Automatic annotation (TrEMBL):
Pfam families: Aldose_epim. Belongs to the aldose epimerase family. This is Maltose epimerase. Beta-D-galactose binds at residues 178-180. The lineage of its organism: Bacteria, Bacillati, Bacillota, Bacilli, Lactobacillales. SUPFAM superfamilies: Galactose mutarotase-like. The keyword Isomerase applies. It comes from the Bacteria. The active site is at 178 (proton donor), 308 (proton acceptor). InterPro entries: Aldose_1-epimerase, Aldose_1/G6P_1-epimerase, Gal_mutarotase_sf_dom, Galactose_mutarotase-like, GH-type_carb-bd. It catalyses: alpha-maltose = beta-maltose. GO terms for biological process: galactose catabolic process via UDP-galactose, Leloir pathway; glucose metabolic process. Its EC number is 5.1.3.21.
Protein backbone atom coordinates (compact mmCIF):
# COMPACT_ATOMS: atom_id res chain seq x y z
CA UNK A 1 0.00 0.00 0.00
CA UNK A 2 1.30 3.47 -0.92
CA UNK A 3 2.04 5.30 2.29
CA UNK A 4 3.76 8.44 3.57
CA UNK A 5 4.22 9.26 7.22
CA UNK A 6 6.43 11.24 9.58
CA UNK A 7 7.58 10.87 13.18
CA UNK A 8 9.27 13.60 15.18
CA UNK A 9 12.22 12.20 17.13
CA UNK A 10 13.92 15.42 18.25
CA UNK A 11 13.38 19.16 18.11
CA UNK A 12 12.90 20.15 14.44
CA UNK A 13 14.00 16.66 13.34
CA UNK A 14 11.75 14.08 11.69
CA UNK A 15 11.95 10.56 10.29
CA UNK A 16 9.84 10.21 7.14
CA UNK A 17 8.59 6.94 5.64
CA UNK A 18 7.74 6.27 1.99
CA UNK A 19 6.23 2.90 1.08
CA UNK A 20 5.11 1.49 -2.26
CA UNK A 21 2.57 -1.20 -3.13
CA UNK A 22 5.28 -3.89 -3.25
CA UNK A 23 6.24 -3.43 0.38
CA UNK A 24 9.48 -1.56 -0.34
CA UNK A 25 10.10 1.06 2.35
CA UNK A 26 12.33 4.12 2.21
CA UNK A 27 13.14 6.05 5.38
CA UNK A 28 14.38 9.62 5.20
CA UNK A 29 15.52 12.26 7.66
CA UNK A 30 14.99 15.98 7.27
CA UNK A 31 18.37 16.26 9.03
CA UNK A 32 20.69 16.57 6.05
CA UNK A 33 17.91 15.54 3.61
CA UNK A 34 19.29 12.10 4.42
CA UNK A 35 18.46 8.73 2.88
CA UNK A 36 18.38 6.67 6.07
CA UNK A 37 17.16 3.21 5.01
CA UNK A 38 16.08 1.25 1.92
CA UNK A 39 14.14 -1.77 3.14
CA UNK A 40 13.00 -4.53 0.78
CA UNK A 41 11.06 -7.71 1.58
CA UNK A 42 12.78 -11.09 1.50
CA UNK A 43 11.28 -14.48 0.61
CA UNK A 44 10.44 -15.18 4.26
CA UNK A 45 8.63 -11.86 4.63
CA UNK A 46 11.32 -10.08 6.62
CA UNK A 47 12.78 -6.74 5.60
CA UNK A 48 16.45 -6.25 4.75
CA UNK A 49 18.23 -2.89 4.59
CA UNK A 50 20.24 -2.42 1.37
CA UNK A 51 22.20 0.63 2.56
CA UNK A 52 24.40 1.38 5.56
CA UNK A 53 22.28 2.85 8.36
CA UNK A 54 22.90 3.93 11.93
CA UNK A 55 21.00 2.38 14.83
CA UNK A 56 18.66 5.33 15.49
CA UNK A 57 17.68 8.54 13.66
CA UNK A 58 19.08 10.65 16.50
CA UNK A 59 22.53 9.09 15.96
CA UNK A 60 23.01 10.96 12.68
CA UNK A 61 23.54 14.32 14.37
CA UNK A 62 25.83 12.96 17.12
CA UNK A 63 28.89 12.62 14.89
CA UNK A 64 29.32 13.58 11.25
CA UNK A 65 29.17 10.42 9.16
CA UNK A 66 27.89 11.33 5.65
CA UNK A 67 25.71 8.18 5.51
CA UNK A 68 22.99 8.93 2.94
CA UNK A 69 23.41 12.66 3.47
CA UNK A 70 22.93 15.38 0.88
CA UNK A 71 26.45 16.80 0.62
CA UNK A 72 27.26 20.37 -0.40
CA UNK A 73 27.57 23.07 -1.40
CA UNK A 74 30.37 21.03 -2.98
CA UNK A 75 30.57 17.27 -2.60
CA UNK A 76 34.18 16.12 -2.58
CA UNK A 77 37.24 18.30 -2.11
CA UNK A 78 38.58 21.69 -3.19
CA UNK A 79 42.35 21.91 -3.36
CA UNK A 80 43.74 24.21 -0.64
CA UNK A 81 40.20 25.58 -0.25
CA UNK A 82 40.94 28.14 -3.00
CA UNK A 83 38.43 29.38 -5.54
CA UNK A 84 39.50 32.15 -7.88
CA UNK A 85 36.18 33.70 -8.90
CA UNK A 86 36.13 35.25 -12.40
CA UNK A 87 39.95 35.51 -12.30
CA UNK A 88 39.56 38.57 -10.09
CA UNK A 89 38.48 37.70 -6.55
CA UNK A 90 39.91 34.80 -4.56
CA UNK A 91 37.85 33.01 -1.91
CA UNK A 92 39.50 30.96 0.80
CA UNK A 93 37.06 28.26 1.86
CA UNK A 94 37.31 26.57 5.23
CA UNK A 95 40.12 24.00 5.46
CA UNK A 96 38.34 21.24 7.36
CA UNK A 97 40.41 18.21 6.32
CA UNK A 98 43.92 18.03 7.80
CA UNK A 99 44.05 21.83 7.53
CA UNK A 100 44.90 21.51 3.83
CA UNK A 101 41.66 20.74 1.99
CA UNK A 102 38.09 21.98 1.89
CA UNK A 103 36.01 18.81 2.08
CA UNK A 104 32.29 18.02 1.63
CA UNK A 105 31.12 21.63 1.94
CA UNK A 106 32.91 22.39 5.21
CA UNK A 107 32.07 21.59 8.82
CA UNK A 108 28.58 23.10 8.45
CA UNK A 109 27.74 21.33 5.20
CA UNK A 110 24.19 20.63 4.04
CA UNK A 111 24.26 17.16 5.61
CA UNK A 112 24.31 18.86 9.06
CA UNK A 113 21.24 21.06 8.49
CA UNK A 114 17.56 20.64 9.29
CA UNK A 115 15.49 20.97 6.11
CA UNK A 116 11.83 21.95 5.88
CA UNK A 117 9.79 19.36 4.00
CA UNK A 118 6.47 18.38 2.42
CA UNK A 119 5.02 14.95 1.62
CA UNK A 120 2.85 13.88 -1.32
CA UNK A 121 1.31 10.61 -2.47
CA UNK A 122 -0.90 9.18 -5.20
CA UNK A 123 -2.12 5.70 -6.08
CA UNK A 124 1.24 4.65 -7.55
CA UNK A 125 3.95 6.89 -6.07
CA UNK A 126 4.91 8.94 -3.04
CA UNK A 127 7.48 11.64 -2.42
CA UNK A 128 9.20 13.89 0.08
CA UNK A 129 10.60 17.28 -0.89
CA UNK A 130 13.13 19.06 1.32
CA UNK A 131 13.92 22.79 1.30
CA UNK A 132 16.82 24.77 2.72
CA UNK A 133 18.25 28.28 2.33
CA UNK A 134 22.02 28.13 2.71
CA UNK A 135 22.85 31.70 3.65
CA UNK A 136 25.66 33.69 2.07
CA UNK A 137 29.14 33.13 3.51
CA UNK A 138 28.28 29.94 5.35
CA UNK A 139 31.67 28.18 5.13
CA UNK A 140 32.71 31.35 3.21
CA UNK A 141 30.64 30.55 0.09
CA UNK A 142 29.20 33.75 -1.43
CA UNK A 143 25.53 34.01 -2.35
CA UNK A 144 22.32 32.78 -0.76
CA UNK A 145 21.64 29.33 -2.18
CA UNK A 146 18.03 28.09 -2.27
CA UNK A 147 18.01 24.29 -2.39
CA UNK A 148 15.32 21.70 -3.06
CA UNK A 149 15.98 17.97 -2.62
CA UNK A 150 13.31 15.50 -3.71
CA UNK A 151 12.94 11.74 -3.18
CA UNK A 152 10.19 9.90 -5.08
CA UNK A 153 9.36 6.19 -4.77
CA UNK A 154 7.25 4.41 -7.40
CA UNK A 155 5.74 0.95 -7.83
CA UNK A 156 8.58 -0.19 -10.09
CA UNK A 157 10.85 -0.19 -7.01
CA UNK A 158 12.74 2.85 -8.27
CA UNK A 159 13.77 5.66 -5.96
CA UNK A 160 14.33 8.99 -7.72
CA UNK A 161 16.59 11.66 -6.21
CA UNK A 162 16.92 15.19 -7.56
CA UNK A 163 18.58 18.39 -6.39
CA UNK A 164 17.78 21.84 -7.73
CA UNK A 165 19.29 25.13 -6.56
CA UNK A 166 19.52 28.79 -7.50
CA UNK A 167 21.64 31.63 -6.15
CA UNK A 168 21.50 35.42 -5.93
CA UNK A 169 25.27 35.77 -6.44
CA UNK A 170 27.91 33.83 -8.34
CA UNK A 171 28.89 30.84 -6.20
CA UNK A 172 29.94 27.18 -6.31
CA UNK A 173 27.46 24.31 -6.45
CA UNK A 174 28.04 20.56 -6.88
CA UNK A 175 25.58 18.75 -4.60
CA UNK A 176 25.18 14.97 -4.35
CA UNK A 177 24.12 12.10 -2.14
CA UNK A 178 26.58 9.96 -0.14
CA UNK A 179 24.54 6.80 0.42
CA UNK A 180 26.48 3.54 0.89
CA UNK A 181 24.96 0.43 -0.72
CA UNK A 182 25.37 -3.05 0.76
CA UNK A 183 23.23 -5.42 -1.31
CA UNK A 184 24.21 -8.47 0.76
CA UNK A 185 22.62 -6.78 3.77
CA UNK A 186 24.01 -5.38 7.03
CA UNK A 187 27.19 -6.67 8.70
CA UNK A 188 28.72 -7.83 5.41
CA UNK A 189 31.24 -6.27 3.03
CA UNK A 190 30.90 -5.35 -0.62
CA UNK A 191 34.09 -7.11 -1.70
CA UNK A 192 32.25 -9.93 -3.46
CA UNK A 193 29.54 -7.71 -4.91
CA UNK A 194 29.66 -7.32 -8.69
CA UNK A 195 30.02 -3.84 -10.19
CA UNK A 196 29.53 -2.62 -13.74
CA UNK A 197 30.36 1.00 -14.68
CA UNK A 198 29.58 2.62 -18.01
CA UNK A 199 32.88 4.50 -18.12
CA UNK A 200 35.99 4.27 -20.30
CA UNK A 201 38.05 6.68 -18.21
CA UNK A 202 38.79 7.58 -14.59
CA UNK A 203 40.79 10.23 -12.72
CA UNK A 204 43.86 9.55 -10.60
CA UNK A 205 44.22 11.09 -7.12
CA UNK A 206 47.13 12.70 -5.32
CA UNK A 207 47.98 12.14 -1.64
CA UNK A 208 45.26 14.61 -0.61
CA UNK A 209 42.61 12.79 -2.70
CA UNK A 210 42.57 15.56 -5.33
CA UNK A 211 42.48 14.55 -9.04
CA UNK A 212 45.55 15.25 -11.13
CA UNK A 213 46.47 14.84 -14.78
CA UNK A 214 44.22 13.93 -17.66
CA UNK A 215 41.62 11.13 -17.47
CA UNK A 216 43.18 7.69 -17.77
CA UNK A 217 41.73 4.78 -19.71
CA UNK A 218 40.36 1.87 -17.70
CA UNK A 219 41.48 -0.56 -20.41
CA UNK A 220 43.53 -3.48 -19.09
CA UNK A 221 43.71 -2.33 -15.47
CA UNK A 222 41.83 -2.80 -12.20
CA UNK A 223 39.55 0.18 -12.90
CA UNK A 224 37.92 -1.61 -15.83
CA UNK A 225 34.34 -2.36 -14.78
CA UNK A 226 32.82 -2.07 -18.26
CA UNK A 227 31.83 -5.68 -17.78
CA UNK A 228 30.53 -6.75 -14.37
CA UNK A 229 33.38 -7.77 -12.10
CA UNK A 230 33.85 -8.24 -8.38
CA UNK A 231 34.86 -5.19 -6.39
CA UNK A 232 37.47 -7.39 -4.75
CA UNK A 233 39.52 -7.62 -7.95
CA UNK A 234 40.19 -3.89 -7.67
CA UNK A 235 40.72 -3.88 -3.90
CA UNK A 236 43.29 -6.68 -4.18
CA UNK A 237 45.19 -4.90 -6.96
CA UNK A 238 48.79 -3.80 -6.53
CA UNK A 239 47.99 -0.60 -8.46
CA UNK A 240 49.55 2.29 -6.52
CA UNK A 241 46.33 4.29 -6.79
CA UNK A 242 44.44 1.56 -4.95
CA UNK A 243 47.25 1.18 -2.40
CA UNK A 244 47.38 4.93 -1.71
CA UNK A 245 43.63 5.13 -1.08
CA UNK A 246 43.27 1.71 0.60
CA UNK A 247 40.62 0.95 -2.00
CA UNK A 248 38.53 2.76 -4.58
CA UNK A 249 37.87 6.48 -4.11
CA UNK A 250 38.05 7.55 -7.73
CA UNK A 251 35.95 9.59 -10.17
CA UNK A 252 34.76 7.69 -13.23
CA UNK A 253 33.89 9.78 -16.31
CA UNK A 254 30.60 8.40 -17.61
CA UNK A 255 29.86 7.55 -21.23
CA UNK A 256 26.88 9.87 -21.51
CA UNK A 257 25.32 8.27 -24.57
CA UNK A 258 24.67 4.97 -22.88
CA UNK A 259 22.52 4.07 -19.88
CA UNK A 260 22.47 2.86 -17.17
CA UNK A 261 25.55 4.40 -15.56
CA UNK A 262 26.09 1.65 -12.98
CA UNK A 263 24.80 -1.80 -12.13
CA UNK A 264 25.58 -3.28 -8.73
CA UNK A 265 24.85 -6.92 -7.89
CA UNK A 266 24.86 -8.84 -4.62
CA UNK A 267 27.45 -11.60 -4.32
CA UNK A 268 24.89 -14.24 -5.37
CA UNK A 269 23.43 -11.90 -8.04
CA UNK A 270 19.91 -12.35 -6.64
CA UNK A 271 19.69 -8.64 -5.82
CA UNK A 272 20.70 -5.76 -8.05
CA UNK A 273 20.63 -1.98 -8.19
CA UNK A 274 20.67 0.01 -11.43
CA UNK A 275 21.80 3.64 -11.21
CA UNK A 276 20.95 6.26 -13.81
CA UNK A 277 22.03 9.89 -13.58
CA UNK A 278 22.25 13.17 -15.44
CA UNK A 279 25.62 13.83 -13.79
CA UNK A 280 28.77 13.46 -15.93
CA UNK A 281 30.76 11.47 -13.37
CA UNK A 282 30.51 9.17 -10.37
CA UNK A 283 33.01 8.93 -7.53
CA UNK A 284 33.17 5.28 -6.45
CA UNK A 285 34.22 4.95 -2.82
CA UNK A 286 34.48 1.59 -1.06
CA UNK A 287 34.26 2.70 2.59
CA UNK A 288 38.01 2.47 3.05
CA UNK A 289 37.96 4.36 6.37
CA UNK A 290 35.43 2.25 8.30
CA UNK A 291 37.12 0.58 11.28
CA UNK A 292 34.37 -0.35 13.78
CA UNK A 293 34.83 2.82 15.86
CA UNK A 294 32.74 5.86 16.70
CA UNK A 295 29.15 6.25 15.56
CA UNK A 296 29.83 3.77 12.72
CA UNK A 297 31.02 1.08 15.14
CA UNK A 298 28.99 -1.58 13.29
CA UNK A 299 30.87 -1.04 10.04
CA UNK A 300 34.17 -2.59 9.13
CA UNK A 301 36.35 -1.74 6.16
CA UNK A 302 34.51 -2.11 2.84
CA UNK A 303 31.13 -2.40 4.59
CA UNK A 304 29.46 -0.40 1.80
CA UNK A 305 30.07 1.31 -1.51
CA UNK A 306 29.21 4.95 -2.16
CA UNK A 307 28.38 5.92 -5.74
CA UNK A 308 28.51 9.72 -5.65
CA UNK A 309 26.99 11.31 -8.76
CA UNK A 310 28.52 14.72 -9.44
CA UNK A 311 30.42 17.03 -11.76
CA UNK A 312 33.98 15.67 -11.87
CA UNK A 313 36.15 17.07 -9.06
CA UNK A 314 39.01 19.28 -10.22
CA UNK A 315 42.34 20.62 -8.98
CA UNK A 316 41.88 23.91 -10.84
CA UNK A 317 41.40 27.13 -8.88
CA UNK A 318 38.81 28.69 -11.20
CA UNK A 319 36.39 25.73 -10.75
CA UNK A 320 34.41 26.95 -13.74
CA UNK A 321 32.56 23.66 -14.21
CA UNK A 322 30.85 23.98 -10.81
CA UNK A 323 30.32 27.75 -10.84
CA UNK A 324 26.64 28.72 -10.59
CA UNK A 325 25.45 32.12 -11.81
CA UNK A 326 22.35 33.99 -10.56
CA UNK A 327 20.50 33.42 -13.86
CA UNK A 328 21.14 29.66 -13.88
CA UNK A 329 19.34 26.66 -12.35
CA UNK A 330 21.45 23.89 -10.86
CA UNK A 331 19.68 20.59 -11.48
CA UNK A 332 20.89 17.02 -11.11
CA UNK A 333 18.86 13.81 -11.19
CA UNK A 334 19.73 10.28 -10.08
CA UNK A 335 17.65 7.13 -9.77
CA UNK A 336 18.24 3.79 -8.10
CA UNK A 337 16.17 0.83 -9.36
CA UNK A 338 16.12 -2.38 -7.32
CA UNK A 339 15.48 -6.03 -8.10
CA UNK A 340 15.26 -8.38 -5.11
Amino acid sequence: MIKTSKVQYSKNQYEITLQNNNGMIVKLLNYGATLEKILVPTENGELVDLILSLDKPEDYSKERNFLGGTIGRVIGRIKSGIWQKNSSKTYHLELNENNITHSHGGTKGLDTRNFKFELKQSATKCSASFYYLDKAFTNNYPGNLNIKVKYLLNDQDTLFYSVSAFTDETTLCNIGNHVYFCLDGPKTTVENNFLKINADKYLQLDKNHIPFGKPKKVLNNCFDFRKANTIKQALDSSDYQIKNENGLNHPFILNQKLAPAIKLYSSNKKRSMTLRTTAPSIVVYTGNHFNCTGITHNFKKYAGIALETQIPPSAENHLQSITLEPNELYLTKTSWSFKY
